[in-house]
Amino acid sequence: MGETYCSDFQSAVSHFLLRHQSVLDILNKCQENSARVNGAVVKAVTSCGCIEIHARKPEIPPEVDLEGLRQILSSHVEGQLCDNCKEVLTQEIGRNLFYLTALCNVFDISLQDVLKIETEKLETLGKFNLD
Q1: Strand ranges for 37-108 from DSSP E
Q2: Distance of alpha carbon 25 from alpha carbon 95, whole angstroms
Q3: Partner of 64 for a Cys bridge, out of 22, 52, 68, 89, CB 3.0 to 4.6 A?
Q4: How far apart are CA 53 and CA 40, in angstroms?
């Protein structure tokens, strides 16, 4: 089922992308939409207030193992997105995915293959996939 969604989405992007055919336009739209995703999160904090961000440098004891890191590290997000903010963020992530898929199309890269390769890397490297 997942392969069908990726393939259908990639075909739809190819079919409906009209204005931004140039790879330069697509790269620009990817960057613009990344900024819009960031903006949607910022507005959820500063305009709506449905979430809060409490960030500080984590103190990591030298003897902690990789599994212990999961207990120490956090997303710094407190609260949950309200329905409106979640809808806005979902839309922005969708637009971002649209232009990333358009970039795949320009270079004849299968979105499904990208997801499969990344999944295999995660499964192979597991906890050692530290980016």
Answers
A1: 51-53, 77-79
A2: 14
A3: 68
A4: 14
